[in-house]
């Protein structure tokens, strides 16, 4: 029996990474996809944990072999999701979560139309700007570009099934857990889990 596939998308600064991390800490039946990338590892990152780090020729060969469920080139580096990995993880009734942008989400849903799309929004653009500034790692020019990019990305929110407003992190985690629990209780999923019960209803 296959598990569920969840797509979580959010603009930079909306809190997606923290939200997903807290979910995974509380739900061992959800696994997060580990993407392939051509960018070099950052300090503290390990191959196979944050990303599968490969070189550009290897990535391009994988594209030619159609190994990626979705892929994109961002800021000069390639990122992609392995179709084989996703299918293998979903096979034993294990849920898989993808953290990708709206373009990647669109590609994934073409291959997995049953995937559940979840978009995380900040409570306001002002708060988003404050969060990005509060990191203290980017210049005002970079922050302005990130805010513009966030606005462009948020225009695609209607392509998703659910929207979480990350005002309170505690509530946002509960909202995400609720969506995942609801997906597991869909009639089709319950029919597969409890086939003999459903057969007795005929």
Task: Write a structural description.
The protein is of the alpha/beta class and 202 residues long. It has a domain at 5-33 and 93-200: Rossmann fold, CATH 3.40.50. Helix content is 46%, strand content 20%. It is built from nine helices and nine strands. The protein has a five-stranded parallel sheet, sandwiched between helices. A four-stranded mixed sheet has the order 4-3-6-5. A hairpin with a 2-residue loop joins strand 5 and strand 6 (77-82). Helix 1 crosses helix 7 (169-184) and helix 5 runs antiparallel to helix 6 (140-154).
Secondary structure blueprint with pairings:
Blueprint: E1 5-9, H1 16-26, E2 30-32, E3 36-37, E4 52-53, H2 56-64, E5 68-74, E6 77-82, H3 83-90, E7 95-99, H4 102-111, E8 116-121, H5 125-134, H6 140-154, E9 162-165, H7 169-184, H8 187-193, H9 195-200
Parallel strand pairs: 1-7, 1-8, 2-7, 3-4, 8-9
Antiparallel strand pairs: 3-6, 5-6
Helix pairs in contact: 1-7, 5-6
Q: TL;DR?
A:
This protein is of the alpha/beta class and 202 residues long. The protein is built from 9 helices and 9 strands.
Q: Mean pLDDT, rounded to whole units?
A: 91
CATH A-level architecture of the domain at 5-33 and 93-200 = 3-Layer(aba) Sandwich
For the largest beta sheet, what order do the strands appear in spatially? 2-7-1-8-9
Question: What percent of the residues sit in helical stretches (DSSP H or I)?
Answer: 40-55%
Discrete helix count = 9
State the distance separating the first and last CA atoms: 22 Å
Main β-sheet: number of strands, strand sense, barrel status? Answer: 5 strands, parallel
